[in-house]
Amino acid sequence: MPLLTRIVPIALVLAAWELVARTGWVNPNVFPPVTEIVMRWFAMFADGRIYAPLWGTLWRALAGLAAAIAVGVPLGLLMGRVRWAEWFFEPLFSFGFPLPKIALIPLYVSWFGVFSLSKVMLIFTDCLFPMVLFSYHGARGISPMYLWSAQSRGTGRVRMLWRVVLPLSLASIYDGVQVSVVVAVLVAVVSEMVSGGGGLGELMIRSYRYGDVRTAFATLVTISLVGFALFKLAQWLRGSLLHWHVAEA
Amino acid sequence: MKAFPVVKIIPLLLLLAAWQAASVLGLLPASVLPPFSDVAVSLGAMLRSGELMANTLASFARAGAGFFIAAIVGVAVGLLMARRRAVERAIEPILLLIYPVPKPAMIPLFMVWLGIGDASKVAVIALACLLPIVIATFNGARGVDPMLIWSAQARGTSERRLLWRVVLPAALPQIAAGVRTAIAIAIIVLVSSEFISSEAGLGYLIFSYGGVGADDAMLAVVIYLAALGFLLDRFYLAGLRRLMSWHAFAH
Fold it and tell me: Is residue A104 one of the residues assigned to a domain?
């Protein structure tokens, strides 16, 4: 669909919103006009008060995600190639994947404290499941031809994982990263809403308590943009790093 | 869609046995993690006292209401989008706009609009469940073999009858997959919203027991919630298999 026809419905909805809020049908402090939200969004960047919460959410999400990749990829590859690892871990991870890890917030707060560590650990836990499962499916799906030809040249087990299994699983691993990036931002924001500690989630809750709906809306826009930008970044990385990949051809 | 093999439970049982052994041998202090036997005893006590049942009902009323609103609106909108180009043109861009917004982050806004009670939670759950159902229904209805539609139309089937008797049944496998995603999302948003504000429900129970340091009771509710989510998914799949036994995709 061309861009212009896409913009028309969005513009109509925003115009109706603006109109409803301006004519005083609704309380503008409860449902503020779009233009005021946009102005608040710019103001929060101009006076710099968005940067500290933005940075707080961003580093927690990325730290948790990085830890999940560092642990999840080797574990998933191992499960894909080693029988006993698959037998033990596969049921645990497929059973745990759809469960709400957010329910662990109080437990993690008692283990890791109320500050950043408990949030990063929760993001790590939540992202670990997609990272392990996508790496596992990537390693399982490798054509045995590649493994046989490497084996016939006497490639060792560790070298095999590192030089053959990992590169051939990358397409699936990057799919896992794309899923995990969205999860990471979501869990960061929810854990900040529940147990504070700065970040965009806490800013949402604080704006709610002060009845500052404009700031809450502007923060929501920022949260959505962070999630969207990280997702696009993961997508771009996948495209630019995987152009050589057999599965991409 | 296969039944869950019993062998797959063994690793979970091993993990629970290791937890219990570590507690009994003193390797795992109760302040870090109470023994699994304590958690099981708490779970039994809460089941008997009716505390779990009452809070399960409170949670399920919220999640169920939000989910059913999303299912009815979502399937209707998805079908209309697939059958009417104008509806697709009007709604698709708006869906693209809402899609990247993390729905639980909207909880504070809905609390301003609808108060801190059930209405705001139901609304966020409905919104979060809506998108996967609309998208799945749209893709399913769009993907219906045109031959089926032409042959029904050639016999003079009205548009309404066509939707009910041809498009909807043919799109059912895709809709069912979207609904399954929506159920998992509903539970996540439910627990998040109950953590932020509530006086009843499973999320409230976990949060309040965690807050007073009653770790065995808190873990009992977490495990109960996990088991409930798992059983819900299994029942859904089993029900679906019966419902769609006629369908080519089910075999």
Answer: yes
pLDDT tens over chain A, length 249 residues: 577 788 899 999 999 999 999 998 888 889 999 999 999 999 999 999 999 999 999 999 999 999 999 999 999 999 998 899 999 999 999 888 888 899 999 999 999 988 899 999 999 999 999 999 999 999 998 888 888 888 888 888 888 888 888 988 998 999 999 999 999 999 999 999 998 888 999 999 999 999 999 999 999 999 999 999 999 999 898 888 877 765 543
In a domain, A208, yes or no: yes
3-state secondary structure of B115: coil
Verify whether the Cβ–Cβ distance A103 to B9 is below 8 Å: no
Residue corresponding to tokens 């994947």:
A97
**Nearest-10 Cα torsion for B216, B220, B221, B226:** 140
Exposure string over B241-250, b if 16+ CB within 10 A, otherwise e: eeebeeeeee
Dist CA A115 CA A109 (whole Å): 8
Measured CA to CA, the distance from residue A139 to residue A73 in angstroms comes to 10
Q: How many whole angstroms separate alpha carbon A122 and alpha carbon B64? A: 27
**Tokens 């708006």, located at residue:** B94
CATH number, domain at A67?
A: 1.10.3720.10
Contact B230, B221 (CB under 8 A): no
DSSP 3-state of A94: helix
Model ipTM?
0.89
Burial of A157 (0-12, 13-18, 19+ CB in 10 A): exposed
A98/B105 Cβ within 8 A: no
Beta carbon pairs, A and B, within 8 Å: 137
pTM: 0.91
B46-250: what fold?
A: MetI-like fold (1.10.3720)
Residue-range definition of the domain harbouring residue A127: 38-248
Q: With contacts defined as CB-CB under 8 Å, which chain A residues touch B14? A: 88
